[in-house]
Write a structure and sequence with these properties.
Blueprint lengths: L3 H19 L2 H25 L2 E13 L5 E3 L6 E9 H9 L6 E4 H4 L5 E4 L1 H9 L7 E6 L3 E7 L1 E8 L2 E5 L3 E9 L2 E6 L1 H4 L5 E2 L3 E6 L3 E6 L7 E3 L2 E23 L5 E6 L2 E9 L11 E6 H7 L3 E3 L2 E3 L4 E7 L2 E8 L6
Length: 337
Amino acid sequence: MFGKKNIKNIFNNSIDKIRDFLLTEKCREFLIFLFFVAISFGFWMLQTLDGTFETEFSIPLRLKNVPKDVIITSDLQDEVKVKVEDRGTVLLNYMLGRSFLPISIDFSDYENASSRVLLPSDDLRKRVSSQLNGTTKLLSVYPDSIGFVYSQGKFKKVPVSVSGKIAPEIQYYISGIKLSPDSVIVYAPSEVLKTIQTAYTMPFDCENLTENTSYRTALKKIDGAKYEPSYCDVSVSVDMYSEKTVEVPVVGVDFPANKTLRTFPSKVKVTFKVGLSEYSSVDADDFFIGVKYGDLLKTGKDNVNLEVTTTNPHVSNMRVIPSSVDYLIEESILNIR
């Protein structure tokens, strides 16, 4: 085992060996050689970079102050490429230390009745040149002009709907899908707006789910329309199925006041599927098994088939055991005073 003292001795011995190696004659000669190589490389770089070179940079392009009811109906580039010429040291400074500010286009400065915005070539070159050194020569800007088409439309609120496939693993089920937001504002010209009734998410497949899942998806684009916001958060709740059984009484429905239904047995078992999260909240009161008096008169049999109903949305695959029961209709004498 290594103690603190042994570790310290090993460290000190290593330092001593390194120092002894650095103080040897051969090591000193090698270090001197490297020093002069570095100096020579530095002079060579300075001499080389003192020459004139050409290079290309990308400058971000931003469109700002766009009203919400304005739809950009053409593609707008997110950057422009500029080709410049200068000494190597200046260009190296651009590459290593200096970042270009985005070229901002203020929508309100170029808004016009023709619904077309154009930033002329001279204006674009001036904006680029303002960020360059005085010695830098601007050779070209691509594209040489920036333009886009827009439409100022009306708006309305529409619901959001999921487009795609959401499916659970076996023995699981989708207990809920929540959209946030569940509706969005859509801006579009009148002729386009009247055709949009729902905003759909981008198609996706989400299968074999065994746990709650959340993700963000963009809304499917429509030419000439703009959504606000342009995305939707989808939360899918997944629960595991469990089977449960309760005893439910058989009840007579629409019987005359002097007649009573007796079934054998009086209660039957109802087996159903329910999610684990709702298991404890479901009981016999959530189910109803009724036998109509008129149906018994029509059938003329000694037994009746049973049907169960429920208002609980979390219950599925209901089975009644037994599915039919024997019955008697008892008649009582009413005392009339």
